[in-house]
C-alpha cells in the first residue's frame, strides 16, 4: 500500500493540478490570516499572492513528519504577513488610498513586530499548559483560521461547546497576559 502524497509534496514534484488544489484547499485560510493582519483589502490580496508564491517555492521543504500541511501553510503565511507589516512600518508614506478610510487606524510602531512575536511566544506557552482538547480548539481557531462551526464539525462537538471553550480559553490567555477586556476585544476585531 502506498501512502498518498500531500498537496505540497506534489507541488514540489511539479504536479500542476496540485497548485489549483492548494489554492482551493488553503485559499480560505490564507485569506483569513491576511485579513486579520492587514486591514486593507488590496494589501491582503497582494499578500495572499505573495504567500502562494512562497508556498510554491517552499513546497520542497515541507516535511509531513515535522508538522501538518495546514501548520506549514499557516506558518509560511504568518511569516510573510509579519514581513509585510515590517515593510509598511519602514515605509509609512506608501499606504494605499483605502487606508485613509480607516481614519483612526495607526501604523504599528517599529517595535510592534518584535512585540507581536514575543506575544505569540507567550500565547504558545499558555496554550501548551491547557488541556489538549482545549488547546486544539484554540489552535484551530487562532492559528489555522477555522470558524467555530468548522471546528465543531471537525471535532464532533456541539457548536455551543466549541464557542464556550474558545471564550474561556481567550479569557484565560487574556488574564495570564494581563490584558484588559477592552484592548483584547479591540485586538480580536482587527
Description:
The protein has 190 residues and is mainly alpha-helical. It has 2 domains: 1-106, Rna Polymerase Sigma Factor, Chain: A (Orthogonal Bundle); 111-190, Winged helix-like DNA-binding domain superfamily/Winged helix DNA-binding domain (Arc Repressor Mutant, subunit A). It contains 10 helices and no strands. It has helices at residues 7-12, 16-37, 41-58, 69-90, 98-101, 112-128, 132-142, 148-155, 159-177, 181-188. The N and C termini lie far apart (47 Å).
Strand content: under 5%
Largest sheet: none
Number of domains: 2
**Which whole number gives the mean pLDDT?**
77
Instruction: Compute the separation of the termini in Å.
Output: 47 Å
CATH architecture of the largest domain: Orthogonal Bundle
CATH class type of the largest domain: Mainly Alpha
CATH topology of the largest domain: Rna Polymerase Sigma Factor, Chain: A
E-strand count? 0
What general outline do the C-alpha atoms trace? globular
* CATH homologous superfamily caption of the largest domain: RNA polymerase sigma factor, region 2, helix turn helix motif
Order of helices and strands: HHHHHHHHHH
**What is the SS-derived class?**
mainly alpha
Keywords, separated by commas or semicolons:
190 residues, mainly alpha, Rna Polymerase Sigma Factor, Chain: A, Arc Repressor Mutant, subunit A, 2 domains, 10 helices, globular, disordered C terminus
Amino acid at each position: 500500500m502506498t501512502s498518498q502524497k500531500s498537496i505540497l509534496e506534489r507541488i514540489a514534484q511539479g504536479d500542476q493540478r496540485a497548485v489549483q488544489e492548494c489554492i482551493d484547499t488553503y485559499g480560505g485560510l490564507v485569506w483569513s490570516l491576511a485579513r486579520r493582519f492587514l486591514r486593507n483589502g488590496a494589501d491582503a490580496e497582494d499578500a495572499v499572492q505573495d504567500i502562494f508564491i512562497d508556498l510554491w517555492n517552499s513546497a520542497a521543504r515541507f516535511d509531513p513528519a515535522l508538522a501538518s500541511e495546514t501548520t506549514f501553510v499557516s506558518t509560511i503565511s504568518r511569516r510573510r504577513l509579519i514581513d509585510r507589516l515590517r515593510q509598511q512600518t519602514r515605509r509609512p508614506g506608501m499606504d494605499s488610498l483605502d487606508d485613509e478610510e480607516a481614519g483612526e487606524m495607526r501604523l504599528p510602531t517599529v517595535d510592534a513586530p518584535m512585540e507581536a512575536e514575543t506575544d505569540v511566544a507567550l500565547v504558545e506557552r499558555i496554550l501548551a499548559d491547557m488541556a489538549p482538547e482545549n488547546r486544539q480548539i484554540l489552535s484551530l481557531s487562532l492559528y489555522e483560521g477555522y470558524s467555530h462551526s468548522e471546528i465543531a464539525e471537525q471535532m464532533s462537538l456541539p457548536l455551543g461547546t466549541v464557542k464556550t471553550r474558545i471564550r474561556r480559553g481567550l479569557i484565560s490567555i487574556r488574564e495570564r497576559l494581563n490584558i484588559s477586556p477592552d484592548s483584547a476585544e479591540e485586538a480580536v476585531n482587527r
